[in-house]
Amino acid sequence: MKNKKISIKDIASELGVSVTTVSFVLNNKAEEKRISKEVTKKVLAYVEKVNYKPNSLAQSLRTGKSKVLVCMLEDISNDFFAKLARHIEDIAYQKGYKILFCSNDNDDEKSIELIDLFLERQVDGFLLTPSPNLQPKILELEKRNIPVVLLDRFFEKENFNYVGIDNEEASKLGVEHLLENNYNKIGFISIDMNQTQMNARLLGFDEAINKHQLYAQKLILKAKDSSEEKINQIKLFLNDHSDLDSILFSTNYLTFLGLKALKENDPKRLNELGIISFDDNSFFEICKPSITTLKQPLDKIAKEAMRIMFKNLDSNSTVNAEMINLKTELKLRESTQLINNN
Fold first, then answer.
1. CA 221 to CA 206: how far, in whole Å?
2. C-alpha dihedral over 97, 87, 82, 135, to 10 degrees?
3. E strand or H helix at 308, and its extent?
4. Is residue 323 left, alpha or beta, with left meaning phi > 0 and alpha meaning psi from -120 to 50?
5. 79-94 and 298-314 helices cross at what angle (nearest 10)?
6. What is the largest CA-CA distance in the chain?
7. Are 71 and 302 spatial neighbours (Cβ–Cβ below 8 Å)?
8. How many angstroms separate the Cα of 236 from the Cα of each of 115, 185, 227, 239?
C-alpha cells in the first residue's frame, strides 16, 4: 500500500501551527509576514525531514501562478539562442520558476499555435523572439495581463518590452575596427528578412561606409534559400568582388556558410580576408584563422529580460514597457590582424 501524500494541513497539524503559517514559509514570505525565525526554521526542517513535495496544481489554483514561463526562440539549436536560453533557465530556476523552451522558426502560424497551446497550460509569461506578424497575438497576451518580453528583435510601431543590443552601433564598431587595421574594401553579407536587428545592422554598416567614403559591396541572401544555395551565392559574390579585403557577416550561421564557401572555392583567400561575425561561437576560437566577433552580452540580456519579466509578474497594475539596448563586445582574434601596407 502506498504511503499517503503529506499535505500542508498535515504539516501544520504535526507542528501545531496554522496552515497559513506553513504556506507563508514555503512561499518565502515568512519575513514579510513577520513569522519568527524559530517557527520558520522548524517548518523548513520538518518539510525536509518528510521530503514534502507541494501539489503544483493546487498551488497554481491558490496563487494564480503556475511558476512556469515559456521561452520561444527562433531556433533553439543555434548557438546564440541556445546559450541565451541557458542563461534564462538558470535565472528562472533561482527564482523558483521552470522554463518551457521551443523554436518558432520565425513562422507566424507556428508561433500562434505554440502560444495557444501554452496558454491552455496556464503559463505565467512569455519570452519571445517574435515572428514577423505576431503583434496582434502579443497585444492579446497583454490584454490578458500575461507578461511578454521580446528578445533579439522588436516591432518599431509597438510599445512592447524588449531586450537586445544596439545593432546599428555594433556594425559601426566592426567597420571602425577593420579601418583601424588597414582594411578599406569591405563586404557585408546578410539575410533578406524584415527584422529590426537585421535592418539596423545593415543601416549601421551603410552609415559607417558613407561616413568614411569607403568602397563596399553587399550581398543580401534570400531567407528561404537552402544553405547550399546560400553557399553558392557567396562563392559567386566573392568571385565577382575579388578586390574585397574584408567581410562583415550579420549572423554567426552566415559566417559558417561563408567560411565553407571560402574553403571550397579559395582556401588561400580564407587566410587573407579580414572577417568579422555577429555573435560569438566556441568554434570561432579554435578554427584557423580564429574569427573576430561582435559578441552579444548574453548574460546581461538574460538578466535584463528576467528582471522585466519578474517586475511584471510581481505587479498588480500595468507596468510601463521597457526598451533595453545593450552594447556588444568586439572579441579580437586572428581574422582581423593588422595589415602591413609597407
1. 17
2. 70
3. helix 298-314
4. beta
5. 40
6. 87
7. no
8. 41, 17, 14, 5
Predicted TM-score (pTM) of this structure: 0.81
| Other beta carbons within 10 Å of 96 | 10
φ and ψ at residue 301, rounded to 5 degrees: -60, -45
pLDDT digits (tens, 9 = 90+) for 307-323: 999 999 988 666 899 99
Beta bridge partners of 274: 246
The distance of Cα 278 from the centroid of its chain, to the nearest Å, equals 14
Tens of pLDDT, residues 247-306: 999 999 999 999 999 999 999 999 999 999 999 999 999 999 999 999 999 999 999 999
Contact present, 161 and 321 (Cβ < 8 Å) = yes
Between CA 107 and CA 96 the distance in angstroms is: 31
C-alpha cell recorded at residue 60: 497554481
Catalogue the long-range contacts made by 226-235 (C-beta closer than 8 Å, 24 or more residues apart): 227/257, 230/254, 230/257, 231/257, 231/260, 231/261, 231/264, 232/261, 234/189, 234/258, 234/261, 235/261, 235/264, 235/265
Beta strands in 23-93 (DSSP E): 68-73
Asked if 140 and 227 count as a contact pair (C-beta separation under 8 A), the reply is no
Q: How far apart are CA 183 and CA 332, in angstroms?
A: 15
Query: Which residues are bridge partners to 276 per DSSP?
Result: 248, 292
